[in-house]
Design a protein that fits this description.
By secondary structure, the protein is mainly α. It has helices spanning 25-52, 54-61, 63-66, 88-104, 106-117, 123-126, 129-159, 172-189, 192-201, 207-212, 214-228, 234-261; strands spanning 8-9, 15-16.
Length: 291
Amino acid sequence: MALLKRPKSAADGSATSDTEGRMPLMEHLRELRNRLVKSLLALVAGTIIGFLFFDQIYTFITRPYCGLPQDHMLRPGQCSLAVQGVFDAFLINLKIAALFGIVVSSPVWLYQLWSFVTPGLYRNERRYSMTFLALAIPLFLAGAALSYIVMDTGLTILLGFAPPDSVLIITITEFVNYVLIMLLVFGISFELPLLMVFLNVIGVLKHATVKKHRRMVIFVMFVFAGVATPGTDPFTMVMLAAPMVILFALAELFMYLREKRLPAGEDYSSLSDEEASPLDLGATDSDAPRS
């Protein structure tokens, strides 16, 4: 697969391409720069919106914490988080606004990422690009939503280990970092099975390889869930690992059904756009070798 494959423009404005269909390295880097700039602009715009609606967003993300029993809180009966440093108040505003910007701008930066990769795919591989993009955005948002749903249970288990007479002094920085890590880890983890399907479509990952290492992959998923989640409670780990295993099973099923539909020896996904397959019906008699 030609990763840098993209048609070049001639001096007169007409599109041309070299024999390998590749683009110069500098043009590839300019494309990467443009994609990054667009993603950053979307992130900045989302962050600005997060600043404007900070109070509503803060109330929303602290709702799981405020729903916990208040017996061990610094101010019993009230939902309170401690601010330790002089600059913590501003930094917390910035983090929460950036957190909102990451989530709300995810369709833009996921699209830019996918658009950067897509031109390097062959024509038969690009057919799946919009389908993958349409699935990537809901999967990321679904992972972020699941992390928010299980957050209160995870906090209840973690804070439940506090001794009876102790007082919990949780800083607002610690809590926001916890929320940020949970959202990103769950959101990105939900993209991994989609990556498996993508690699299978372009001919890099075969179903036989996945089937051979299925048990190891599931074990690694649980290990990853245990390491990636900020809490040490088993509930949060299982709530991350279980959907990953289900999505992995669905991805493996798709790979199996897709390869089953392909007749033996007729997978030409690795051919270039200019290379003819062994069963090229468009070949004429003049193309045949002469004795």
